[in-house]
Amino acid sequence: MTTSNYATERKTTEGKVFTVTGGDWDQVVSGTDPINDERIVVNMGPQHPSTHGVLRLILELEGETVREARSVVGYLHTGIEKNLEYRNWVQGSTFVTRMDYLSPLFNETAYSLAVEKLLGITDDITERATTIRVLMMELNRISSHLVWLATTGMELGAISIMLYGFREREYILDIFETITGLRMNHAYIRPGGVAQDVPDDAIVKIREFLKMMPKKLKEYEDLLSGQPIWVERTKHVAVLDVTGCLALGITGPVLRSAGLPWDLRKTMPYCGYETYSFDVPTHPDGDVWGRYQVRLAEIRESLKIVEQALDRLRPGPVMVADRKIAWPAQLAIGVDGMGNSLEHVAKIMGQSMESLIHHFKLVTEGFRVPPGQVYVGIESPRGELGVHAVSDGGTRPYRVHYREPSFVNLQALPAMAEGGLIADVIAGGASLDPVMGGCDR
Amino acid sequence: MTSDRNSTGGVPVPVTPAGASSGAPAEHPPSSPAGRGMFGTHGSGDVSGFGGLVRQRQPIEEAPRPYGGYFDEVRDALEEAYPYFGDAIEKVVVDRGELTLHVRPERIAEVCQVMRDDLALRFELCSSVSGVDYLGADERRLHVVYQLTSMTYRRRVRLETAVSAEAPHLPSVTAVYPTADWQERETYDMFGIVFDGHPNLTRILMPDDWEGHPQRKDYPLGGVPVEYKGAEIPPPDRRRSYQ
């Protein structure tokens, strides 16, 4: 048992080295008497297949009943917000996309919207770029919900749905690869627009996907909705009502599963969502079953939006016209992967000295953003994804803070789990859909 | 990581990390004062002459009435519902279509309470709590920023408070908005701002025994040793780059 708050340390030639151990674990355990006391303390995670990544849960159990639950996060903290402060504004996209790795395009859009608001060019974003953003975000919402369905199914013992969910998600990732060049971590949506136009074969793929997906959704429902074990494990489990959600700041499908149709796409529209026709599904019960229903219904709504976005795509520029902001790159797939197209490089190098200087300045120095601060919130698959961006007038962000729905929503876990069975901790935790990459940033 | 390699050449002498007592694990040279120079280099190495440039920070200006939109309504409703309005609100700023109320730190919990409960305000949701370190701006450099959302009226308001690094204390708003729990812990973790009355103000993202508060602008950054004759890539804020 350690008496000091800090871990033991020793001196090396490299400096001081801390040996981090379980901390107060001994203290926690010594508080219980394993023979006469029914209460035991169980440390679940941080490496556990059912905790959705590196999430550690400390559970105090009495038999199978959870008396107290505490979640410990931070195992995946990578300091992305700090890193952003040492890169220019455009480079920020490549960092934020790595936060919540299941919804990278939402991270990018939120960041881009914030930077554009700081620059005061929100109205200059071309229609095609905005439509592409909506299209990509909704496809991403579907893929994220599919992963939720897949992993939650697996955690509750339904292995087939895991395979099905990942299979269909892979189809969406293929579409992303066609459009952005990458399956994940796209850095595709950038301040000013998107990195490049959508190729024609991607449109064909998306149309195929739109045709295929409703059948698959039917298949999932046939597989799960009538399944007695699935129903038993989700209905009236991990209930959280609207009051609880609001107090704990829970947004997204979890809030909507409690009956409040709060969806930023409808209530505080951005990217022209007010012009699309779609519904905000809700459920009255606020349990895991409700969240399952809401997410499946949201996939259907997203399919509607994707279809409308496809119909609206008209040829046009995908970047703002301002050459002081628009990233002067034309990407192409070469033998060694994606990079600047050789023709474009030849054009810059051959055109004029001024054009070369301009390209060099914009790439190395970046653009300056007038001082000030903004907050932009968008509806990610997990709830309100907010970006608080501060500029001091320089070429780099002064501070960017992400209000991550995974981080905020995880606070609800004790409220859902305490007093229930340990098996329901898994169902409840999974129903929050936390992504630790986003939570810890 | 000691001071040996930085003791010469006109390079600033390292100081202990912000909030640290023993220095480890990140005892590195201090970052450059924000807003100085053009390329981020100081002392020797910069022969461009741009190193002497000082970027002026614009003071935050009070917005004139009327603010436009719902901002006037929010201000008036708060003024009516909260008797200490004149004392608590230091400044009202409207910028880029967003309303920011600068609140005296000791009043923040009261203001939040009124913002949540008053029928004309109804800011039910505290969307985000975070910090910003305006190093070098003025004495109270550590700012805490609250983004409040009214779901009833579909409005957003930002509350901003400022405390000094020497006495970084302000009341916790967890009693009003329980959702601020983890977010205040994160702000404490990253900026060392102490929220009095918080039920469990411990580190949340960094390891429990971490020293210093990494998001502070004077938190020292580490360089990367490379395998070439003991060379080292300097920390990002000391590299020669545009600022």
Shape of chain A: globular
Span from first to last CA of chain B? 26 Å
Count of discrete alpha- or pi-helical segments spanning 4 or more residues of chain B: 4
Average predicted local confidence, pLDDT of chain A: 86
Number of domains of chain B: 2
CATH first level of the largest domain in chain B: Alpha Beta
User: Low-confidence segments of chain B, ≥5 residues, pLDDT <50?
Assistant: 1-17, 19-34
* CATH topology (level 3) name of the largest domain in chain B: Beta Polymerase, domain 2
Task: State the CATH topology of the largest domain in chain A.
Answer: Cytochrome-c3 Hydrogenase, chain B
Cα end-to-end separation of chain A: 31 Å
Q: What is the name of the CATH superfamily of the largest domain in chain B?
A: NADH:ubiquinone oxidoreductase Nqo5 subunit
- Taking all residues together, what is the mean pLDDT of chain B? 78
**N to C succession of SSEs of chain B:** HHEEHEEEEHEEE
- Structure annotation, total helices of chain A: 18
Gyration radius of chain A, to the nearest Å? 24 Å
Question: If classified by CATH, what would the architecture of the largest domain in chain A be?
Answer: Orthogonal Bundle
Subcellular location (chain B): Cell membrane
InterPro entries (chain B): NADH_DH_suC, NADH_quin_OxRdtase_su_C/D-like, NADH_UbQ_OxRdtase_30kDa_su
Keywords (chain B): Cell membrane, Membrane, NAD, Oxidoreductase, Quinone, Translocase, Transport
Enzyme class (chain B): translocase
